[in-house]
Specification:
With 333 residues, the chain is mainly α. It has a single domain, classed as Farnesyl Diphosphate Synthase (Orthogonal Bundle), CATH 1.10.600. It contains 14 helices and no strands. Helix 1 crosses helix 4, helix 3 packs antiparallel against helix 14 and helix 13 runs antiparallel to helix 14.
Length: 333
C-alpha cells in the first residue's frame, strides 16, 4: 500500500467527517457553510498529504482510522493557506470558484482557523485530547505566519541558507509538524515522543518546500522568481558567487519580478553545476535526517514504511545543470 492507496481507502471517511465538521457551524450559519464548502470543493491537491496524521497514528497504534478528524484539519488548513498564497500572488480570482475575493477571504478565515478548532471537538476525539489538539492549531498558525513574514520581509542581500530554512520551518514545517504532533497526542504518547514527531514534521516540511521550489522551475511557472521569493537555491547561488558576482545575482533577482529575460538569466545561474552541487548535498542531508528520525521513532512497520516512502517522494534531486551562458555569474574559487 502507498500513501495514495491509503487516501483512496479513507477518502469517504474523510469526506463524511468534513461534512460533519461543516455541520457544526449550525443552522444559523448557512451562508458561511456555503462559501466554505465552495472554497473546499474548488481546491484539489495533487499530493493528498492530508493522510499524514493517519499514517503517524497508524505507526503508533496500528490503526489510522481514529485520526480521520486530523486529516480534515490538515485539508482545511492547507486550503486556507493556499488561497492566502494565491491572494498574495494576485491569482485569487481563479482560485476561489464562483466566490468573489471578499467571500473567499471570509471563507478562508472560517475554514482555516475556526473549523479546525471545531474539528478537534469531534465525538471521535477523546475529551482529554481536545485541549492539546486545539493548542496545536493555534501554535501552527502563529509559527506559519512567522515563517511567511520572514519570507515576505527577507533581505535578499543578507540571505543565507540558514535564514531561508528558518522561514521554511514556518511556511511548511509548521503545518506538517502540527498534524504529526497531533496524531501522537491523540495516540496518548509521551511529551518526549510527541516532540520527536514534531521534529519529523518540521524535517518533512523542509523537504516538501524544496520539492515545491524545484517544481516551480521545472514547470516553467517561475512564480518564485516573479514574486521575488528568496529560495534555498537562490541562497546557494549567493553563497557560491564571487564577491563581484553576488551583486549581479541580486540585480537579476530584482529585475526578474518584471523581466522574462532576467528570469531566464537568473535561472541559468541557479542551474549552474557549482550551485546545484551544494544544494543536492544539503537535500541529501535533510533527507537522511528525516529517515533517521523515523528509525529512532520506530513503531508499526507497515505504516512506518509509508512514511519512509513519503520522505523519498519529497526528496529527489530533480534539477539538472544547464550550460553556462555569457553573462552568468562567476563562482567563488
Amino acid at each position: 500500500m502507498s500513501y495514495v492507496d491509503l487516501h483512496r481507502e479513507m477518502s469517504s471517511d474523510i469526506r463524511a467527517e468534513r461534512e460533519a465538521v461543516l455541520g457544526l457551524l449550525g443552522a444559523s450559519a448557512g451562508s458561511v457553510r456555503a462559501v466554505v464548502a465552495e472554497l473546499l470543493e474548488n481546491r484539489t491537491f495533487t499530493y493528498p498529504l492530508g493522510v499524514l496524521p493517519l499514517i503517524v497514528h497508524g505507526v503508533e497504534t496500528g490503526a489510522p482510522g481514529p485520526a480521520v478528524p486530523l486529516a480534515v484539519v490538515s485539508d482545511l488548513w492547507w486550503t486556507a493557506a493556499c488561497y492566502l498564497d494565491d491572494l498574495a500572488d494576485g491569482q485569487a480570482a481563479s482560485a476561489a470558484g464562483g466566490l468573489d475575493e471578499s467571500e473567499a477571504l471570509l471563507a478562508t478565515v472560517i475554514g482555516g482557523t475556526m473549523l479546525p478548532l471545531l474539528a478537534v471537538q469531534s465525538p471521535r476525539i477523546p475529551e482529554a485530547a481536545r485541549g492539546p489538539l486545539s493548542a496545536e492549531v493555534v501554535r501552527c498558525w502563529i509559527n506559519a505566519s512567522e515563517g511567511q513574514l520572514r519570507d515576505l520581509r527577507a533581505d535578499v542581500g543578507a540571505a543565507t541558507r540558514e535564514a531561508v530554512i528558518a522561514a521554511y520551518l514556518g511556511k511548511s514545517g509548521a503545518p506538517f509538524s502540527m498534524v504529526t504532533a497531533m496524531a501522537a497526542e491523540l495516540a496518548g504518547r509521551t511529551d518526549e515522543r510527541v516532540e520527536l514527531w514534531r521534529e519529523f514534521g518540521n524535517a518533512f516540511g523542509i523537504l516538501w518546500q524544496l520539492f515545491n521550489d524545484q517544481h516551480d522551475i521545472l514547470t516553467g511557472r517561475n512564480e518564485d522568481l516573479a514574486n521575488g521569493t528568496v529560495t534555498y537555491l537562490l541562497a546557494c547561488a549567493l553563497d557560491n558567487a564571487a564577491p563581484d558576482g553576488a551583486d549581479e545575482v541580486l540585480r537579476l533577482h530584482a529585475d526578474a519580478r518584471h523581466s522574462p529575460e532576467a528570469r531566464a538569466a537568473l535561472t541559468a545561474v541557479l542551474l549552474a553545476p557549482d550551485v546545484l552541487r551544494p544544494y543536492e548535498e544539503d537535500l541529501i542531508r535533510f533527507r537522511d535526517g528525516a529517515h533517521g528520525l523515523l528509525d529512532k521513532l520506530g513503531g508499526d512497520t507497515a505504516h512506518l514504511a509509508l512514511l519512509h516512502d513519503l520522505v523519498d517522494l519529497a526528496s529527489p534531486m530533480l534539477l539538472r545543470p544547464e550550460e553556462r551562458v555569457a553573462g552568468t555569474v562567476p563562482a567563488r574559487d
